[in-house]
Amino acid sequence: MIEYLVLLFLILGTIFIFVASIGLLKMPDVYLRMSASTIAGTFGVASMLIAAVLHFRDITIALHVIGIIIFLILTVPVGAHMLGRTSHIIKLKKWDKTVCDDLEGKFDENTREFDCNNKDNKDNKDNKDNKDNKDNKTDNK
User: Fold this and answer.
1) Among residues 5, 9, 17, which one has the least CA distance to residue 44?
2) For the chain, what is the radius of gyration of the CA atoms?
3) Which of 7, 16, 73, 134 would staple 44 via disulfide (CB 3.0–4.6 Å)?
């Protein structure tokens, strides 16, 4: 019975990794490729590691696999996020059918930071200028 579970998790992992590889080849831009590869790749590797635990039935292997899966779940999204931000900063071409870009106009070239607190970066600068002018008037009195 365990052999069938091992086989099930191996096939499931293979399918996830296969879907991730197809996503890398077929998706039109880097953002969609990243999404397909990180999600499906993580689930694929985790499924294959679970199959290894079921096959060997050893507590030390199980503990190692749990650590590896936790490490993957914590680091893969962070890496994808960093790649996505970098792709946006260097202005990689987006897919023609991209509907919304939430970070458009939010990156300040001078400070090299994103300003995502307000909806419109221009409004944020105007508000800051108005606040500075009010502070100057108060200081002069």
Assistant:
1) 17
2) 23
3) 16
Give this prediction's pTM.
Answer: 0.72
Tokens, residue 83: 């790649």
pLDDT of residue 51: 97
Q: What is the CB neighbour count within 10 angstroms for residue 72?
A: 17
Give yes or no for a contact between 14 and 8, defined as CB atoms under 8 angstroms apart. no
Contacts of 33 (CB under 8 A, 6+ apart): 23, 24, 27
Q: Strand, helix or coil at 85?
A: helix
Residue 76: predicted pLDDT: 94
Give the pair of three-digit tokens for residue 55. Answer: 């096959």
**Regions of the chain where pLDDT drops below 70:** 103, 118-141
For 55, residues 6+ apart whose C-beta sits below 8 A from its C-beta are 2, 6
H, E, C per residue of 22-66: HHHHHCCCHHHHHHHHHHHHHHHHHHHHHHHHHHHCCHHHHHHHH
Instruction: Give 100's contacts (C-beta < 8 A, 6+ positions apart).
Output: none
CA-to-CA distance for 93 and 29, rounded, in angstroms? Answer: 7
